[in-house]
Amino acid sequence: MAAWGGRIRAQIQRAAARAPGRGTVTLALSVGRDGTLRGAEVAVASGNPALDRAALAAVRAAGRFPPAPASVTGAVHRFALPLRFD
User: What is the rounded CA–CA span in Å between residue 80 and residue 44?
Assistant: First the structure.
């Protein structure tokens, strides 16, 4: 499970290479077993609205994520993902 989350985080970070600022944004993500993004919202804002918007845009631009490992049993997995931008 941690490896899957790490792969998702890396894919988002690549899509957000030019974030407008520095800080940490925690996103609430819903990802289907097949890797399809089902939902995304800011769970904990960074204090910089432009950075928060860029984080959400990066999630949407990242495309389909890797499929879930066999240990994920539900059709959709929901989790919080902190993203740090330097």
Answer: 9
pTM for the model: 0.81
Measure the CA–CA gap between 1 and 14, rounded to whole angstroms.
Answer: 20
Query: Domains of the chain (ranges plus CATH)?
Result: 2-85 (3.30.1150.10)
Between helices 49-61 and 2-15, what is the axis angle to 10°? 110
Q: Are 85 and 21 in contact (CB under 8 A)?
A: yes
Copy the structure tokens of residue 33: 């077993």
Token look-up 């949407």 returns: 60
Look at residue 15 in the predicted model and tell me its pLDDT: 67
pLDDT tens digits along 25-81: 999 999 999 999 999 999 999 999 999 998 998 888 888 888 988 888 889 999 899
Half-sphere exposure of 57 (CA within 13 A, CB side): 11
